Amino acid sequence: MKNLIMSISLVPEIATDDYVGFTFFMGCMAMMAASVFFFFSMNSYDRKWRTSILISGLITFIAAVHYWYMRDYWYVNGSSPTFFRYVDWILTVPLMCVEFYLILKVAGAKKSLMWRLIILSVIMLVTGYFGEAVYRDQAWLWGLISGVAYFVIVYDIWLGKAKKLAQQAGGPVLAAHKTLCWFVLVGWAIYPIGYMAGTPGWYEGIFGGLAMDAVYNIGDAVNKIGFGLVIYNLAVSASEKPINA
């Protein structure tokens, strides 16, 4: 108990104008609350959707734990917790790709689709980390490679095999797939803005004044919680009426 009290007393005060710190705190709380919601709702729909909801809860729970550390890192050091952020992403973003496979299993999706999306997401993240933390003088090049992997994912889910499977499934699955596609196209596009705000390159004059961490934090909350809510809505809707084959 004494150690707990000492730990609490060492938490630094949040400045009233520390908007980045505020987004770290709100991101942590929001994603923890989302995890509780997803985990406790798992008995509300058909059993076949529970794995998808479990993954949604894991995504937000992993993020909440990392945000707890990133929040303290920011308060103590006043610098971006790049390492913790990419550890979070390397765990949660591939899981978000797994969600596409799980909801499309009803239309016969194969594991090859899942692994393709996972590998592309890992390439996107690893090259992004190289540009942001290792080879900052070549950030534009690593960002370009990361962007190519991202656009291949966008193509696969919007126009490729995943789109065809979603059309075969129809009903709530098709609706959920479309919404997730929009999250990837629009929501994930927030991250390149954060990347350009925090790395040197020809784009500094455009995005250099933005707070990189605030952009990332908002993007994480919107995308990770939003993904889970789409899956939750699919599970509830599909449990209420049969899916059109």
Largest sheet: none
Distance between the termini: 58 Å
Structural class from helices and strands? mainly alpha
Helix content: over 70%
pLDDT averaged residue by residue: 89
> How large a portion of the residues is in β-strands, by DSSP E?
under 5%
- Along the chain, the helix and strand elements come as HHHHHHHHHHH
Care to count the β-strands?
A: 0
Question: Mind telling me the C-alpha Rg?
Answer: 19 Å
The oligomeric state is single chain
Low-confidence stretches: 4-9
Helical stretch tally: 11
User: Judging from the principal axes of the Cα atoms, what is the shape?
Assistant: globular
Describe it for me?
The chain is mainly α. It has eleven helices and no strands. The model is unreliable at 4-9 (pLDDT under 50).
Which features would summarize this protein structure in a list?
79% helix, mainly alpha, 11 helices, 245 residues
Short summary of the structure?
The chain is mainly α. The chain has helices at residues 2-9, 19-40, 50-77, 82-104, 111-134, 139-158, 161-169, 171-187, 190-198, 204-207, 212-240. 40% of the residues are buried.
Topology summary:
Blueprint: H1 2-9, H2 19-40, H3 50-77, H4 82-104, H5 111-134, H6 139-158, H7 161-169, H8 171-187, H9 190-198, H10 204-207, H11 212-240
Helix pairs in contact: 2-3, 2-11, 3-4, 3-11, 4-5, 5-6, 7-8, 8-11, 9-11
